Amino acid sequence: xxxxxxxxxxxxxxxxxxxxxxxxxxxxxxxxxxxxxxxxxxxxxxxxxxxxxxxxxxxxxxxxxxxxxxxxxxxxxxxxxxxxxxxxxxxxxxxxxxxxxxxxxxxxxxxxxxxxxxxxxxxxxxxxxxxxxxxxxxxxxxxxxxxxxxxxxxxxxxxxxxxxxxxxxxxxxxxxxxxxxxxxxxxxxxxxxxxxxxxxxxxxxxxxxxxxxxxxxxxxxxxxxxxxxxxxxxxxxxxxxxxxxxxxxxxxxxxxxxxxxxxxxxxxxxxxxxxxxxxxxxxxxxxxxxxxxxxxxxxxxxxxxxxxxxxxxxxxxxxxxxxxxxxxxxxxxxxxxxxxxxxxxxxxxxxxxxxxxxxxxxxxxxxxxxxxxxxxxxxxxxxxxxxxxxxxxxxxxxxxxxxxxxxxxxxxxxxxxxxxxxxxxxxxxxxxxxxxxxxxxxxxxxxxxxxxxxxxxxxxxxxxxxxxxxxxxxxxxxxxxxxxxxxxxxxxxxxxxxx
Length: 499
Known about the structure:
This protein is 34% helix and 26% strand. With 499 residues, it is of the alpha/beta class. The radius of gyration is 23 Å and the shape is globular.
């Protein structure tokens, strides 16, 4: 069988960096081909080359057995190559339907046929299992999971022969992931090829047919069976080393005084009646479905939302409700769910992103000591094994895992007493995950109180000492992590009680 896509010896260079160093990839029609690799391995550069958004400096791309030049995204789309990036490219001011058909509007004599656009959009959303999303709603008002569905609908609105999905499940809960897999299986049954990028190895096994692994910009293995290749082998190929245990040992922690105390906290329709206590040196996890109120709880504790009831205390003192400044002064730090839009100054340097909450420390008589700022940032970059270590580099150019390390470094420098983590390893590879887990446990060992939200039940149970399960804005269970299993947590988030 002639491969639908074959990429031979693809090379891409940037100033001082060889991002792709002879990558090979072969995809056949009707398969799910999974692309694995650590952050910085070259996956994003490769799919941008495939999407026509970046031009290779060497190598050949074959499509249906013929060499082609993908000189622009439009050229790729004309062949039937559609890409959905991890960072969604939706236009907030437009409706769902307008986003789905953006760039190929249904029009007559220059006038858009809105009724037909909305009807076709509804059909696509129904096909994706989300008929409840209104085609006329402004897309910026949708939660992240529904925005991901809109991006999928946009891809299906084209005559797609190859669909590239970059971390498609990052903002989806388990039920939505299963629905995504249903859609993917329907597409492959029609002969559509799918390139699936994910750091979640359980997903690779569930949906994948074959696997290609990248490391340091080169193909280190290709054509592996997604279901039969041992996890240890995949991890070794990606990282160059074995990772026997993803989650570090918690160790023994003695009881300590409460640092974060939340009593009867409520925020409008999002959640109500939340009671939490996090002690010094303790990691508490919040488990629940997307939309259950987990992120809103963290944001309200941090002062990014104004509570409608309840109190928050840090070491016995009450920060001003609805004030981030007051929360930070009290000793709180937040790593938000959407780190690029909410946690980083993307066009600023790594150093400035690290020091942004402590700039007064580097100021004298109104003047900023840039040398001292960079020196302190380098210490943290070294301690966190930031890659690359250049703190003058623009943070936008870093991989997802290294961007997350920058946000964590900010609060390390601030020496916060309470650290709030919302999806701390979203879009982060298995090697960087281990490093972030170790950092979280190191902070706890130093007496920081950590409250973490994650959509991955395994992550909550592996990281936390205690777990609070949230269902529809209410806490339905609280107890030691080692007394829970993934199935019990899923019973609680779905039914409100453990079977």
